[in-house]
Amino acid sequence: MKLKVDQRKCDTNGACVKHYPELFRFQTGSKKAEFIPESIPVQLVPAIKKIMEVCPRNAISIEL
Questions:
Q1: What range does the domain containing 46 cover?
Q2: For residue 50, what is the domain's CATH number?
């Protein structure tokens, strides 16, 4: 399981990068965010809903 950033919805405000720099970064050459790890770290699974809610554009979703 991993998180996906919908590039059409991402407005580059950086909330996910600011709050969860271990999970998100800005793409090279773009201010759009991307999910870094191959999967969600086990210790963060309980916080998935909170992680998704940090995005004001609802661009973060779960990808199974």
A1: 2-63
A2: 3.30.70.20
Tally of structural domains, the chain: 1
Q: Phi, psi (5° rounding) for residue 58?
A: 55, 40
Prediction pTM value: 0.90
DSSP letter string, 3-26:
EEE-TTT--S--HHHHH-TTTEEE
pLDDT tier for residue 3 given thresholds of 50, 70 and 90: very high
d(CA 54, CA 49): 9
